[in-house]
Specification:
single chain, 272 residues, mainly alpha, 11 helices, 0% strand
Length: 272
């Protein structure tokens, strides 16, 4: 039996390079998270930082649930069938966009209860921020075919870009010198939505199409994705539940002080 040591060496080098690239991206994400946390705290102060957290926390959790685990399904099926990655992505986006409508409707009704201790304008901004769910579908899902196909350069670019934009939004608000938490949150939402265009172009250039949803693929994707969502929900609650409870029970200033205190431990969170 002949062993191809050359291919084994090449594969080992590729694994090392991929690991190093992903590790460097994770370190960069941590640094960006710490920078954005400090910048938001200095920009808004304790009360404003608490109001921003109240606006973002529950919609971000709801938006993550609205994906129904399709991001994991896209990565899995793109690895199994790389030539059909585009069809799996299109199918996942269709599922997530339809699901987002129901989760947004539920979140809209529940937002006054979730933000019971906050001012009415913060409740209104939180309702607007529920649009993060379709933004997740349009901007978050396209990176997962790259993960499944082990194309880690665009995968990491698409992971990092929202964090860089978030810092850009905070810096523009700082330059404006009159930052309002609700406007900062909505500006971040709009900036993320703008990523739809470059992400779509990058995906079309590197992922084989077509990208039309395939109804025959959707049941298997949901069978894979829903258990993944069930296992991820406790992790998401670990990130968001404390802030959501405090937003419901305590004034914004106390929430802001808490968020600043734990900002370092949550530095890799996306799209913070």
């Amino acid at each position: 039996m002949r062993v191809d040591f050359g291919s084994q060496t090449t594969g080992r080098r590729s694994l090392i390079a991929d690991t190093a690239l992903n590790a460097a991206a994770n370190i960069m994400l941590a640094g960006l998270g710490m920078a954005s946390g400090a910048l938001a705290a200095r920009l808004l102060g304790p009360r404003g930082r608490g109001e921003l957290a109240a606006i973002q926390a529950a919609p971000s959790f709801i938006g993550g649930l609205a994906m129904l685990g399709t991001h994991d399904a896209v990565a899995y099926y793109s690895a199994r069938s790389p030539a059909e990655a585009g069809r799996y992505l299109g199918s996942a986006m269709a599922i997530a966009l339809v699901s987002s409508l129901f989760f947004m409707a539920g979140g809209y009704v529940l937002m006054p209860l979730i933000l019971n201790a906050q001012a009415p304008e913060i409740v209104g901004a939180g309702r607007w921020y529920l649009l993060i769910a379709p933004v997740y579908a349009m901007v978050g899902l396209p990176r997962y075919p790259f993960q499944g196909r082990r194309d880690f350069v665009p995968w990491n670019v698409m992971r990092i870009a929202p964090n860089i934009l978030w810092i850009a939004v905070l810096m523009l608000a700082w330059a404006w010198s009159h930052a309002i938490p609700s406007l900062v949150a909505i500006a971040n939402l709009g900036a993320m939505a703008l990523l739809t265009i470059p992400f779509a172009l990058l995906t079309a250039a590197r992922i084989p199409g077509p990208f039309w949803p395939d109804p025959h693929k959707m049941p298997s994707m949901l069978r894979y994705g829903l258990p993944c969502m069930a296992t991820m929900a406790p992790q998401s609650l670990n990130l968001w539940l404390d802030q959501m409870l405090m937003a419901a029970l305590l004034p914004a200033r106390q929430l802001g002080l808490y968020v600043v205190a734990v900002a370092w431990s949550g530095s890799v969170r996306w799209p913070q």
